[in-house]
Amino acid sequence: MNKLTEWIKQHQVTVFFLLAFAITWGAVIPAMAMSSETRVLFQVLVFNLARIGVYGPALAGIIVTRVAAPEWGERSRGARWIAFFAAWILAWAVSCLYVRRLSSGEIGLPAIIVLTAPSAMLPAFVVSGVFSKVFSLRRYLSTLVRPRGSLVWYLVALLTFPTIHVLGNAITQLGSSGSAQFGSGIGMDLVGRTMLEFLFVFFFAGGINEESGWRGFALPHLQASHSPLIANLILWFFWAAWHLPIDLVEYSREWHFTNRVVLLPFVTILFGWVYNRTRGSILAVALFHASMNATNVLMEVFPVTNAGHALLIAFGLFAILYDRMWKKLPADHPATY
Predict the structure, then answer these.
(1) Over 90: is that where the pLDDT of 169 sits?
(2) Assign residue 333 a region: left if phi > 0, alpha if psi is -120 to 50, beta otherwise?
(3) Can you tell me whether residue 134 is helix, strand or coil?
(4) Is the dihedral of CA 303, 236, 157, 214 positive or negative?
(5) Per-residue pLDDT at 157 exceeds 90
(6) Count of domains in the chain?
(7) Model pTM?
(8) How far apart are CA 109 and CA 211, in angstroms?
């Protein structure tokens, strides 16, 4: 056991990626295989397996941190339980509303409440880690509730993807008709669904579950020995590969190439840019991820455009040049391990 612990300490990034893939693929692939089952027990199992699976990066980061740096100390148990229950209730409410909307009322609210309760403990478990007795775990997750950096960068995180999406549509319309007219489909219903999507992603589908791992754990370790540019490109490869089981089933090869091979490197660089600019804030990139995925709802009114893709790539190139991302960060930078 001691030899294994020492090996994990010396290969933390490798172990992180292995665990993240093992947890995610080990839960998601069986869930996908059982998704056609109509029996209630299987549907409940599929739902919760999928939720556990997407938490692979966060759980991997927590496991490696606890094994590699088990620095124990005193901490108020009350604070951790308060954080756990507060996050659980909030995530549970968001999950109930989200499933209720997707089911269009076909599933009763009592059944939804029971179905979503277990998986809502996942974000609660991660957030409550900020008050863990393990010092290294507290340091690792602290920026989830104690964000660093200027407010400006949180606005960048929230507004970048919606702005690129809307501007891409405006440019496309100007090029085709000489005027930019924004649509008729914008209303309170769209705003409400976008906000619900944002909150759901933040808790379950890219925010806390992914960013606590990819940026919160892997990126600072990679930036300890590589420049931000190289570290983010390494992370892009694993981030794209991690999505493969779902991508291969849900999307076409053309979509996969455009989104994971062409665009995702620049998305990864922008995420790394925001993370570094906020001095290693997991909250900032979790909000960034939620904002990015929430634009899927806006596609009903603002469809994806090549102009939007070009703007995204241009912004990524700007970030590289503006921060000289080919240069290593100082060893004492908060975004390095």
Answers:
(1) no
(2) beta
(3) strand
(4) positive
(5) yes
(6) 1
(7) 0.91
(8) 30
In a domain, 293, yes or no: yes
**CA 240 – CA 257 distance, rounded (Å):** 10
CB burial of residue 328 (10 Å; 0-12, 13-18, 19+): middle
Q: By residue range, what is the domain housing residue 195?
A: 151-322
What's the one-letter identity of residue 29?
I
In a domain, 94, yes or no: no
Place of tokens 């409550």: 128
Give the pLDDT confidence of 288-323 residue by residue, as tens digits.
999 999 988 877 777 778 888 999 999 999 999 999
For residue 175, being part of any structural domain is answered with: yes
The residue behind tokens 């089911």 is: 103
What spatial distance separates the first Cα and last Cα of the chain, rounded to whole Å? 25
What is the C-alpha to C-alpha distance for residues 147 and 82, in angstroms, rounded to an integer? Answer: 19
DSSP SS3 for 39: coil
Q: 109 near 96, Cβ under 8 Å?
A: yes
Determine the residue type at 307. Answer: A
Question: Residue 141: which of 62, 210, 32, 74 has the closest Cα?
Answer: 62
Positive or negative CA dihedral for 313, 314, 318, 324? positive
Higher per-residue pLDDT: 298 or 137: 137
